[in-house]
Amino acid sequence: MAAGGSTQQRRREMAAASAAAISGAGCCRLSKIGATRRPPPARVRVAVRLRPFVHGTAGASDPPCVRGMDSCSLEIANWRNHQETLKYQFDAFYGERSTQQDIYAGSVQPILRHLLEGQNASVLAYGPTGAGKTHTMLGSPEQPGVIPRALMDLLQLTREEGAEGRPWALSVTMSYLEIYQEKVLDLLDPASGDLVIREDCRGNILIPGLTQKPITSFADFERHFLPASRNRTVGATRLNQRSSRSHAVLLVKVDQRERLAPFRQREGKLYLIDLAGSEDNRRTGNKGLRLKESGAINTSLFVLGKVVDALNQGLPRVPYRDSKLTRLLQDSLGGSAHSILIANIAPERRFYLDTVSALNFAARSKEVINRPFTNESLQPHVLGPVKLSQKELLGPPEAKRARGPEEEEIGSPEPMAAPASASQKLSPLQKLSSMDPAMLERLLSLDRLLASQGSQGAPLLSTPKRERMVLMKTVEEKDLEIERLKTKQKELEAKMLAQKAEEKENHCPTMLRPLSHRTVTGAKPLKKAVVMPLQLIQEQAASPNAEIHILKNKGRKRKLESLDALEPEEKAEDCWELQISPELLAHGRQKILDLLNEGSARDLRSLQRIGPKKAQLIVGWRELHGPFSQVEDLERVEGITGKQMESFLKANILGLAAGQRCGAS
Ligand code: ADP
Ligand code: MG
């Protein structure tokens, strides 16, 4: 009872802290299982921390170029006009004298309670190298930072909440990874190599094969975390700038299982991220020309900026997939998490430009809206005897390593109904690992339902009323989810068609040249050429085993299928076809890149959507910054927006790919 009493008090404290810190933004209410209602929004919180001068370093005796005004705002000298200062306002500002406890209690502790509600949370430390990110996140034994404090509190809280006699059993696991040069490296198992990032049908981001260590005490945490951190530090010293160019991501999962009916389970994920240094490497190294060769561009950080901009502008395409970090953060930025960004800045003048750029990034991030929701489902033994691990869901190629005994523990903190025939039952489903995730999930639900009927020896309708209702609701919600996906797909298709029609009007014959072997008839011009979504094209190009796909339309129904799956009679039907091989696409991209880097203004004007003004802008940018490393860099040219860049790519990649095809045949 004592534990229960202190838990209540602790919860009240956390709730009070949260209410104080989260002004205006929608406080999170628990949603129902797989709620179909739109979850309430929660803006990304942004705090800025100014570190003190570090004695003995360059510029330590200069006057500061930035200073705090109050607990939310600061000002920095304006390099354009020395009479003025630039003022910024954030959710919190922590000055030179702020302590580790101030930052933790003010900005981090309030979001931890959401983990016990099955919601996700993330803390990101941003800023130039040397501005105090690692100090804020990790700290030192004398001044522990956010990570040890959060772990200490979270473990204490889960022990209390999960104590015997409480309604939920709780377990905590940790994973620790590093993203270095677009490789995801498991710091708890450095030998495992680059890991893949996946998304399940609910939009959860997963890393199959990533080590998860169960932890029940802070000593457990340190036992795993300290050697892994040391690995990273040793690497940093040896490789000099490695740590400033890599992102360190600590993932803590809180798994909850209800002890009594309806036996719900929840999972909350906490990401604690020490980001790579945000300084502009173009300014600091290699005269700004050999960016790609020197590896000075940190793709993930660059894309993070683009993701934040796309979210702010409400663009239909958010480029999460363009980097590992943003893919990992997909459910944390503009996704399902409560997020806090701590921008770390330094007072010295030599940091001035990086400080301004970090403050601008922080100001843009403030506008991003997340929609946190409760990640809740029924425990597998309620639905049936089949327990599906992440590895099993994704099939053998995704599961890089066999699970160790520790990882087995993760999934089953409490004894469950024995999955005696699980492997036999799963075998046909494993083959479907490449299926549409929504469909796969639906099949799995049905499978579980059937299994539960079989194992209990009773039909669905004779199960106790409450459980039955829950089961029915789950199925109903799955249907709704599938409907929602279908509507979304239809919308996308309508958009593509409208775009295509518009491009037709603009006379883009190269782009619309049909790649199909069929002859174009004048009567049905719109049915012959299909514009594929750029993302799909990129995915196909990126996938080494990508097969040729056919996008077909039968009346109002359209499917994306593998060539092999087509029945002969279906082939004969009047349908749209588009065949593009990844090689052709890659070739198209390369051609554009070559033109961007080597073409004269006149050459550039031969591309679709590039007029004399844009051609000049591109040439000017190239002279100033050196060659483009990828076609998407076009967006960095002042005067060319992300949207324009995308429509430029759509208009030209297909055209050049088609040109290549014709030339080759
Ligand atoms: P980053 O991780 O951003 O590169 P660090 O955390 O390593 O920066 O900080 C650089 C130096 O500044 C370190 O010596 C660190 O101890 C010191 N430092 C950073 N923030 C503070 C602070 N708030 N108070 C005292 N020293 C700090
Ligand atoms: Mg650091």
Automatic annotation (TrEMBL):
Domain Kinesin motor: 43-368
Gene Ontology annotations for the cellular component aspect, listed alphabetically: chromatin; cytoplasm; cytosol; kinesin complex; microtubule; mitotic spindle; nuclear speck
Signal peptide annotation: none
Top-level lineage group: Eukaryota
UniProtKB keywords: ATP-binding, Coiled coil, Cytoplasm, Cytoskeleton, DNA-binding, Isopeptide bond, Microtubule, Motor protein, Nucleotide-binding, Nucleus, Phosphoprotein, Ubl conjugation
Bias (Low complexity) ranges: 412-424
Location in the cell: Cytoplasm, Cytoskeleton; Nucleus
GO MF entry, a single one: microtubule binding
Gene Ontology process terms (BP): DNA repair; microtubule-based movement; mitotic metaphase chromosome alignment; sister chromatid cohesion
A Pfam family that the UniProt record links to this protein: HHH_3
Matching CDD domains: KISc_KID_like
Coiled-coil regions listed in the entry: 475-502
InterPro entries cross-referenced by the UniProt entry: Hlx-hairpin-Hlx_DNA-bd_motif (IPR003583), Kinesin-like_fam (IPR027640), Kinesin_motor_CS (IPR019821), Kinesin_motor_dom (IPR001752), Kinesin_motor_dom_sf (IPR036961), P-loop_NTPase (IPR027417), RuvA_2-like (IPR010994)
Residue ranges, annotated region (Disordered): 393-424
Gene3D superfamilies, per the entry: AF1531-like domain (1.10.150.280), Kinesin motor domain (3.40.850.10)
Major place of residence: cytoplasm
Family affiliation: Belongs to the TRAFAC class myosin-kinesin ATPase superfamily. Kinesin family.
Job description of the protein: Kinesin family member that is involved in spindle formation and the movements of chromosomes during mitosis and meiosis. Binds to microtubules and to DNA. Plays a role in congression of laterally attached chromosomes in NDC80-depleted cells.
The protein's name in its UniProt record: Kinesin-like protein
Upper taxonomic lineage: Eukaryota, Metazoa, Chordata, Craniata, Vertebrata
